[in-house]
Amino acid sequence: MTIEAWTETLPDEALRDLELREWDDGEAEVYCALLDEHHYLGSPDARTRHLCQVVLYQSKAVALLIWTTCSRKLAGREHHVGWDPRTREKRLGWVVQNSRFLLIPQSRPANLASRVLGLAVKALPAAWEARFGKRPLLAETFVDPEGYKGTCYHAAGWTKLGQTKGYARVSAPQYYQDNERPKHLWVKPLAKDALERLRDPSRLLAGEDPKARAPGVLPVSAKKAESLYRALRKVKDPRARRGRQYPLAALLTTAVLVQCCGEHTVTGIFRFCQDLTSAQRANLGFRANPKARKVVPPPGESCWRKVLSAVDPEELSRALDPWLQSQSDKGELPELLSIDGKVIASNLATIVSLVDAADGSPVAQAAASGNGQEQKLTKQLIKALPQAALEGKTLSGDALYSNKNLVR
What we know:
CATH superfamily of the largest domain: Gcn5-related N-acetyltransferase (GNAT)
Mean pLDDT: 84
CATH topology of the largest domain: Aminopeptidase
Largest sheet: 7 strands, mixed
CATH architecture of the largest domain: 3-Layer(aba) Sandwich
Strand order of the largest sheet: 1-2-3-4-5-9-6
Helix content: 25-40%
Number of helices: 14
Radius of gyration: 26 Å
Structural class: alpha+beta
Distance between the termini: 78 Å
């Protein structure tokens, strides 16, 4: 069969007679050539062409679309859906991305793009489920504002969520790289209650194994987690020797990393550790079961409450601060900083953190038992910094930090 593209003027009546189907393997070479010729990003690698659609008029190609797996992390999407990091990891498989969209005719009727998008999105859930066993609930795409406004996505019922930070995921040694071209993020629910189903981890989705549990995700590399464990071994263990089934440094390392993920409750810490694999828990310093060496059991929730309420938060802060500051590539504080306080669980402790405003990574902390000590802790934190560490830096905080003496 000869594969042709419609390159002439497309008549208005063509909107009623458009047909959509998936590419055949034998058509890939021709359609990829069209993408290379007419799309500013060219044709994607074959490994990322998960679902390919072609829209035809009188057996000639009018439009090409490619769908792939979604981006791993998008702040705007996570906020829109209402995801915490754990739920996001479990539900990413139900989000798909429109990575390419090409209209071939140069002269075409109005509304062709939104009509094509409507046909593609309508067919997408069933086609994706047939291939991968999961019926997607949300579609996402990026629009380059330097060349496009995204008008067709708006007309097809997509929602604009704002601008990305312009980072692209790449291989080692840099996990994310700034491509200096922020895009506009658009999303489209593929079911009436899509967002509610995606954000609720207690609701079983189509294609989800009720017995499967997504492995936990550590916010730092294994090497950094190990160095944090070594730093926290300096904290004195308040427990009696007979009550030290779980190493204190392993418990504290996990608690610190959980806070980096935005979780500030004891129950959240307990669930986070439960979701880790045995290998991940072993890397954090937990011990294996003597009768089953491959199994590294997690502590129970009561253990977390008992230990975290007994540890001296000031001593923990003194052990943690040098490690935080050692993580800076330049050996000095970032140019833009933010300061904020959090109360852990039921007034177990108050922690004031100085963080890099660009990515939220902490660079210094001060802590104390109880609640309502943020200004006192802030003064302690600043005094503990190297001399003149804040010279030339910009520091932001909420209204609590506008006290005149504290500002000075």
